[in-house]
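Reopening this one. Same input as before:
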Amino acid sequence: MNNFSFLQDLAVVMVAAGIAALVCQWLRQPRVLGFIIAGLIIGPHAHFTFISDNESIMTLGDIGLVFLMFSLGLEFNLRRLMSVGSTTFITALVDVGFMFWLGFVIGRFMGWNTMESVFLGAIICDSSTTVITRILQELGQSRERFAGIVIGATIVEDLIAIVLITLLTGMAISGQVQPDEVMFRVGKLVTFLVAVLLSGVVIFRRVIDYVAKWKSDELLLITVLALCFSVSLVAAKMQFSLALGAFVVGAVIAESRAAERISAFIEPVRNTFGPMFFVAMGMLIDPQVVVHYILPILLLIAAIMIGKVVAGSVGAFLSGNDRETSFRVGCGLAQICEFAIIFAALGRTLKVTSDHVYSIAVSAAVGTIFLNPHLMRYSGRLMHAIDAVVPNSFTGNLSVYTKWYRNAFRGPGNPTIRAIVRRTVVTMIVNICLITAIFVTATVLSKTLPALVSIPEVLGGPPALYWLAGALLCIPLYVANIRKLGAMSMLAAEMKFPIDSTRPHAAIARALTEKVVFFAGIAALGIFTLMLSSALLPPSLSLIILLFVIAIITAVFWKFQIRLYGKVRLLLRDAFADQSQGTSDRPIPNHSGGTHLISVPVEESSRAASRTISQLDIQASTGASIIGIERDGQTIVNPAGDEIVRPGDKILVLGHKDEAERASELLAERAG
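Same output, byte for byte:
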């Protein structure tokens, strides 16, 4: 290939994409649809040869995929994920789970092998955020309540799809589906994510913030692209995918102070290369295959549309929404696009699916993109038609369930406590991810590096040494999670049975709930650890001895572990100084028991006045945590490290009795 032929190919692709975009704009159809059809027209299966080197266009398509996923990562961040709420999580899990199963069943029904059926399940499980956002805007429905649930659910589904890409890549490479292989793959993924996240906090964000000070968009763009392609390359070298690396680094950079500025100048780059991905994917479609498999394609389109309407509606309804809202959510989810194409291309690239699987999958995606706007437009009429044939007794029972759910899970209860419970759960999940990364790293090292000290096989051999090292490193994380389990169990009991509740035996129920949540969490953490480290576990007797030693170390150095964890957490928290804060207009009630919540008033002469949370360093010095600040009738939940304490505030401190009292004394001290 010479330079002229490459420029000619590039010109053909850009002209085809431009014409497709104009036609779709005129017909009020998603532009993605036009890009795929344009690729079909100029592809190698067309009657006329437009492209001289298909491989060069495929390479441009890979670059387009990197920019698409990087942009998606920039739009995706932890605050956005936390804002979508439990309804969208439930809806997404039901939709993805049901559609994955349905795709596998359809694949087997059509005579496909196991791997092809698994890939088909992945192809049809994820709804497109890009497509539904555009459809909602064009129909003027983007501000309606169901639209927020749909968008939130697609965000969660995108995250699940990222994990599926990793798992399917590992399955395709190993050629088999084994539980231990899947667990190892998940652990490897968590290790990669933790490594990128820590690198992002410690290195990437600081580099980007430093470069951003020079006020040069060119310099900042080059830096961002260097990070993007470097992490994508590392992901590919680790047998993940380019899409995963680009998405993760985008999500990390989204937390930087220059995120909005980066998004602004990345957008035209994405708009240039993004269409090339869809055009390149369209070029892989064989029209003759589409004609030959037209019946399976139509079957798949019908299965996707009907299956997603049913699964999305059921998921939304189970999470407390009324019938009409749930049905409209299901209609919004009834389409697939970019991740379907990515999964189809992944199977083709890894040579685990036949060529016709790709053409069938992409053709089905095109069909759902075309039909979904019409389904959304007439969803109200369809709902009325369904109501006309469904017995009133059945719809009445559905309404009773909705009222019961809202009373049970959205009824009385302190919203500040709900917010604190959510944040505590997130922190515990982060700790579990770090534990996973440590044990997976220990497993990898035990297989690749010899032990520094010879260990007899009767004691477990070298793996036992790596298990012990991993367990010792995880002690601060386990201590933190045990403490947070205690706090969360108390708060969860308060949320379910408020202290001012008039229910009979509320105090007994609150105490029982607190104990059940705490011990269930401890048991789950222990079982998870044993499963995670199963490849390194020493024999039973050695394991008991090591656990006894670890228990003694934990008990003796308990406060040291608390302070160590507190200092590390403060360092990471300061790195996320722009962390969002939630507010509530209701104070948090006090409690008695193992975990204490104390409100400390701040006076003009107090040591805490006019100082930041980081400067007070309460968690590191006492073990207690500042979980909120009451100010002017509102509560700042989980204040950031740079939040300044003002005279007149009330600081909410959570910890065991001695920790909370010590923290109260420090905060109430007069400045001297």
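So the earlier flakiness isn't reproducible anymore. For the record, Residues 576-594 have pLDDT under 50 and may be disordered.
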